[in-house]
Design brief:
The chain has 203 residues and is mainly alpha-helical. It folds into 2 domains: 55 residues, Arc Repressor Mutant, subunit A, CATH 1.10.10; 138 residues, Tetracycline Repressor, domain 2. 77% of the residues lie in helices and 0% in strands.
Length: 203
């Protein structure tokens, strides 16, 4: 089997341009609404040039999702079983809010894929994601059993953290419309969610 040649610096730069453009287009229009022509325009490349780097719209989308899964799991991986339970969980909430602030397009891309039934990442959800969530759920159960954490369902606690943090990326326009000018949603959310989870988690 032939070993693929390493990409040149220009090839790497152009692939990165395509992926950045595709992230913008997919997060705006979803997979079905996005076109290769629009991605090429956003990247400042011709469509034939784009197709030199990626064979199809689906290949671009899958490449983005594969990179995103690791990014999405990293904050949960950082939950330390040997740490203070409340401190660890509140740090997880803050990390997820920070991702909503810094990576709103990625959050919308992920949400759109899930809403559509995860056709391009279902295997990863049932393996990598499930395994990690199950592992951390056992940590939460252990903390509850030891009296260090309130007796809560660990899976639904994790789901609630996801929904209460990712909401600020996926529904940013709605949140800002309700709050009005001059307010920073994620700064306010951090204060509110810390107070909320302290009460929920207190043993």
């Amino acid at each position: 089997m032939a070993v693929p040649k390493p990409r040149t610096r220009i090839q790497e730069k152009n692939r990165a341009r395509v992926l950045e453009a595709a992230l913008e287009v997919f997060s705006r229009h979803g997979f079905r609404g996005a076109t290769l022509d629009e991605i090429a325009r956003e990247a400042g490349l011709s469509k034939p040039n784009l197709l030199y780097y990626f064979a199809s719209k689906e290949e671009i989308h899958v490449t983005l999702l594969e990179g995103l899964v690791d990014t999405w799991l990293d904050p949960l991986r950082a939950l330390d079983a040997d740490g203070d339970p409340q401190a660890e969980l509140l740090a997880y909430v803050r990390r997820k809010l920070q991702m909503s602030r810094d990576l709103p397009r990625e959050s919308r891309l992920f949400a759109q894929e899930i809403v559509q039934g995860a056709p391009r990442m279902k295997d990863g959800l049932s393996t990598d994601l499930k395994a990690l969530v199950d592992e951390k759920a056992e940590v939460l159960r252990g903390w509850s059993s030891a009296g260090k954490l309130a007796p809560v369902d660990p899976h639904h606690l994790i789901f609630s953290i996801w929904s209460l943090t990712q909401h600020y990326a996926d529904f940013d326009v709605q949140v800002r419309a309700v709050l009005g000018e001059g307010r920073e949603p994620i700064d306010e959310a951090e204060v509110f969610l810390e107070a909320l989870f302290r009460r929920v988690l207190a043993p």
